[in-house]
Amino acid sequence: MTSKPSLTCEALLKEASSRIESDSPRLDAELLLSHITGLSRTSFRAWPEREVTNAHAEAFEALVQERVAGRPVAHLLGHQEFWSLPLKVSASTLIPRPDTECLVEVALALPLPRQASVLDLGTGTGAIALALASEHVGWRISACDAEPEAVALARENAVALGLNLSVVQSSWFSGLEPERFDLIVSNPPYIPDSDRHLEEGDVR
To answer: For the Methyltransferase small domain, which residue ranges apply (predicted)?
Structure first.
């Protein structure tokens, strides 16, 4: 009776990378395998011949199939890092993107008061507001979103990170009390729902 060939990290990653169509297929595969096994991406390079259990291999294959079908990695993992903060994500909001960190950098460079009042319109996951809150604990930061699911998600992220953030449901200023802010930031969805790019990669 012949035994089944061993399943190694490198073999699984190589095979998955050949099927995933994205700008970074190897990275996608490593993130998914790390999520399933609990192993770091560094360990995949240091010990490529490490064997993977059949259960982990099957779970990994299930995620790879979803990735091949176009589901974003962040949705498969359930989280996305932004400004070094681990944020929970869901299909109800757009996925925080690295280029949005430029907005955070610009905001932090402004000559604002030590106890500035800041508003984030259309907060989504709360990424921008929470990034600012992590840098300036003295700022009074508020955020709003028209979608109740986004409001709940931003609140959940704030609690998980232990950051002070007030989040309310409001379509722009319509549900907000009149108030003067030192800074208003926003990075609303700017791609039409009909744009084909929303069906590609992680632009969701």
So the answer is: 110-193
